[in-house]
Amino acid sequence: MDIDAALVHIPRLRRYARALVGDAARADDLVQDTLERACQKWALWRPPTAATADQVQAALRGWLLTLMHNLFANQWRQAARQRTIDWNETREPGHDPTSGLGLRLDLERALALLAPQSREVLLLVGMEQYSYAETAEMLGIPVGTVMSRLARAREQLRRLMEGEAPAPVTLKAVK
Amino acid sequence: MSMNRPDETAFHAWVDGELAPERAAEVGQWLSQHPAEAARVAALQAQCAGLRALRAEVLDEPVPPRLRRALRRPPPQWRWPHALAAGVMLCLGMGLGYGLGDRAPGASPQADALTRLPVFVREAAAAHAVYVPEQRHPVEVAAQQQAHLVQWLSKRLGVRLKVPALDAQGFHLVGGRLLPGEAGQARAQFMYQDAAGTRVTLYVSVLAREDRAAAAPVAFQWTGDESARGFYWIDGRQGYAVSAALPRERLHALAEAIYHQLG
């Protein structure tokens, strides 16, 4: 199987990345990194045995999304580290973008306010229509974690969109 | 008949079609008796529909050329996992030892790839292919005489050689041999073996100035061939090539271990 098989998945990857990171250029950067990673790791990709052409394509898409998750997770881990340092150093209050938010938000803006991990679960299950088991595998977490994250994320999203005060976010200071 | 309130995740699983039919029917029945909860679950379904439709227009956009190119062309440089010292050029050559027989230029993508590799990498691939299957005489000087081996090969190559230890990676030194380069230079090959009998060779060459320059623009190549693969890099005057029929990760770990010990 040739890596060109990944071409047909680019539109779906772009859409998912757009919903995940919001900004169009950054989303395409993430897709580009994912495709480059796929080139490097192509030899490791094993299509499922005794599978139909559709199942092979679905598996390939799942593999690409897994690569994208790993890249994305690295990004926000780095960003979080950065933020933690900033917060520790400056002790600047009022950095919570959701504080005092009393207005209804559209879906996309509400999505942007969720934690990256919550967005991933919401989008993989809600937008990409993956099962809990498939989502768990892609994200490398237990199915139970998918379920609890999903329930929490949906509730947060609902509150944000209905203009309710969001549930308090616990801020962990790393020391 | 009344049942207990299903827990929160059960409502979500119900919306997502993740429940077994029997359980789904129970939850459905419970909701039919609890209109307030049913309204909340309906809102959940509406939210899901919104997510399903989100950004659908992106699907119809033409794929930007840079994304097509990302698949077509290897990335501009191989990203080694750890930052390596500046001035060290790292190249990756895949498919060593493949199609080394009677190859006409341009006969196959593999042959093309090989002709673009630096000379010492091709030498390394040939030496790997010849000596790795050797049962009785895989090396000239066995590991038991390691001190002599290093001294001898250092003298012939004109540089102080080090023999990396790969025991932590499961490979012990078998020994080494002196080999002729394409233009009659002295080259060294060290061979390692693991408990399963898999052999790894490290090929060391001292490069002439022009070879160092010529070796620079090497593209990432992949043949998909399982028989032999390799990493190679150039550090100062010396070119190193590590070859083995191993998965890329393991080979990569070996190459990295060797690099760090030699550095």
UniProtKB/TrEMBL annotation, chain A:
Name of the molecule in the record: RNA polymerase sigma factor
PANTHER family cross-referenced by the UniProt entry: RNA POLYMERASE ECF-TYPE SIGMA FACTO, RNA POLYMERASE SIGMA FACTOR RFAY-RELATED
UniProt KW keywords: Sigma factor, Transcription, Transcription regulation
Domain PhyR sigma2 residues, every copy: 9-48
Xref: Pfam families: PhyR_sigma2 (PF22029), Sigma70_r4_2 (PF08281)
Domain RNA polymerase sigma factor 70 region 4 type, first and last residues per copy: 105-157
Family note: Belongs to the sigma-70 factor family. ECF subfamily.
Organism (species): Castellaniella denitrificans
